[in-house]
Amino acid sequence: MRSAAAAADALQTPVQYLKGVGPRRAGDLAAVGVQTVEDLLLTLPRRYEDRAILQSIRDLRPGEATTIGGTVLSCGLRTTRRPGFRIFEMLVQDATGRVRVAFLNQAFLKGVFAARQQVLLHGRVDRRPTGGLQITNPDHEIVSDEEDDAWGEPIHTGRIVPVYEKIGSLTPKSLRRVVHDALQRLPAEVDDPLPDGVRRSLGAPPRRQALADAHFPPTGTSIEALDRFGTPAQQRLIFEEFFFFQVGLLLRRRESDTRVKPRRLVVDDRIRQAARDLLPFRLTRHQRQALREIVEDLQRPRPMNRLLQGDVGSGKTIVALLAALVAMENGLQVAFMAPTEMLAEQHYASISRVLSRSRFAAALLTGTLPARTRREAGSRIANGASQLVVGTHALVQGDVRFRALGLAIIDEQHRFGVVQRAILRDKGLDPDVLVMTATPIPRTLALTAYGDLDVSEIRERLPGRQPVKTVIRSEARRTETYDLVRTELRAGKQAFVVYPLVEESEKLDLRAATEMAAELQARVFPDARVGLVHGRMATAERERTMAAFAAARIDVLVATTVIEVGIDVPNATVMVIEQAERFGLAQLHQLRGRVGRGAARSCCVLMHAARLSDAAEARLRALAGTTDGFEIAERDLELRGPGDFFGTRQSGVPLFRVGDLLRDHRLMEEARRAAAAWIDGPEAIGPRLDAVRSAWTRRFGLAGVA
Ligand code: ADP
Ligand code: MG
Questions:
Q1: What is the pLDDT of residue 180?
Q2: 411 vs 343, 408, 420, 436, 546, CA distance in Å?
Q3: Atom 18 of ligand 1: nearest residue by CA position
Q4: Ligand 2 geometric centre to CA of 313 (Å)
């Protein structure tokens, strides 16, 4: 048996030592990150073609692709009337008949083919201008030079063949040959970086076999399985990539996270009873699961870093509050941070209501408080009289001193509390951190891009809540939309009419929204009270108007997207979104979340210009198709791609070579579980860990992940 070192060397051989790879091709390969044989073999085909079944020449039909095998009877170069245009022709025979084969402008084939050769051909069957059939420009393979020789292993035909993406000067066909050569040169066994235990429990084929089968699948492999990268060989290579990625993340986390909480939290029967007393309803299954995960974190020695994802109104806040109760029962304080002052006030009001059933008190700390009130609140926080503090994100940035901060809850939109966590750490505070977001990101991405966050999800709707009915409607049918709004208003309900407002056309947008409000009031809903809020209004005025809407003193609220965050008005049952095609998918979903917050049936109308781009139509359809924010996040990602999804390439979403985050997200989760189990197990000894660490650094780079 060869030593593992020699085998590893074979994979690390630079590609230019392969047959057919000169300096130019090596350069083309290097440009896409392919330097070694291993790099090359981990560049999997884009798709596969089944050329395994040889068709009888007698059965050929024009217009179809075919694979045949036979003997060359004669061949030669034919000139045509077009100057310089020559055709290389062959006559090929099998047991059932003969067919002509034409290669246009490939005179060099004169030196390649000869009579009596055994050949395999794959190509399209055409009708000849002069009658009869011909195969034009087929992929070809000379299997043997003599009729009775045994057939060697074919590469391009007579089997399932890989189809590669062109790389510079390397055509799919030349890549096929180069990869085949690389595989031929590999020793019978290559070092398998995947730990034995992991590989066994996965039932995955050995690496050597996986590499071979992923490029040249054994006859009989399902093309459908191959094309969705679902064969054991492909899955193993994807898993391998994900596994090392996850091990790397865990190692990094372990190294940076040697911090220990000053105090360990406990949960006993008394605390459990206090939690029950706080709850006016039964938690849903997902809420209970999320709470369990959070409370387990609280009891661990290391600070929690958890993301709680769930749609608006899915019941995240109450889960967070129960976690807060556990912290407070343990003598610790809780900071609750909201993205805006208005939201902080809303949270403060509802949290105070819930906490009135406990022995704890909440304080509100915002920038708009009078200086004296603020000072007083500050001293109650410092001496521990206030156990829970609600404020904006500025809460952690200011000079607030806690007596014993144990838990920070961050209600966030997009940034996952990265900034706040850093600030807390810089201040020498190491509380448990729970980040809540109503803009879910697909779990796979959460696990990768934000690998240092654990993720809990609430995916069920609360009991009694109905999904918001969503309709897509062209502007031409405005009257019908107004009729619908009118019906709801007559039933005592309220409506939102939302206008897009983008920076480039802000003035125009503002005018449109303002005119719309006037128009709706004067002509469309003369009996209703119409209000207007937009981002350019003074905060006080905006909040006054919002408060009036919340108190049902305004029936129709015309708004630019400033209502995206915040407002909670269960009596609002219609959301009309004007020029919906100008919004992003996640934004539309957030807007729609403003209705459907009560028990009544709600509706969202997506108004759009008569002419829609395909992309815009896809977005609107995706939104109308589901109310599940998680599904929408996945669709959003599909429509935009990971780079775009996070807005920038520095978002830390790694680019994988074999795996695909969307297609293979289940494998990513499996890899994460396997990595977590392995890293704490007996196999994860020093040298192995070092090897994994260096492989990971080489592949993804330490700076890659936020
Ligand atoms: P989120 O924070 O996810 O937006 P909230 O926690 O604010 O959602 O919950 C929305 C509303 O539903 C609140 O009024 C809350 O009291 C209520 N609620 C939460 N969980 C439940 C439940 N299990 N059963 C009934 N009502 C619930
Ligand atoms: Mg909420």
A1: 92
A2: 9, 10, 11, 5, 20
A3: 315
A4: 6
Nearest CA to ligand 1 atom 24: 281
pLDDT at 552: 95
The mean pLDDT value of the chain amounts to: 85
Residue pair 576/485 in contact (Cβ under 8 Å)? The answer is yes
| pLDDT per position as a tens digit, 141-193 | 887 665 544 445 667 777 888 989 888 889 888 899 899 999 999 998 888 88
Residue 417 has pLDDT above 70, yes or no: no
Helices (H), 416-529: 418-426, 443-449, 478-490, 506-519
Q: Which residue has the tokens 């009915």?
A: 469
State in Å: Cα 462 to ligand 1 middle. Answer: 7
How many whole angstroms from 338 Cα to the centroid of ligand 2? 10
Coil vs helix vs strand at 319: helix
Q: Which residues surround ligand 2, an ion (CB under 5 A)?
A: 317
Contacts 24+ apart (CB under 8 A), 263-272: 263/330, 263/331, 263/332, 263/404, 263/406, 264/299, 264/301, 265/298, 265/299, 265/326, 265/327, 265/330, 265/332, 265/406, 266/299, 266/330, 267/295, 267/298, 267/299, 267/326, 270/329, 271/325, 271/326, 271/329
Q: What is the DSSP letter of 523?
A: I
Res 87 pLDDT > 60? yes
pTM, two decimals, is 0.64
598-613 per-residue burial string, b: 16 or more CB within 10 A, e: under 16: bebebbbbbbbeeebe
Closest CA to 80 of 133, 121, 130, 135: 130
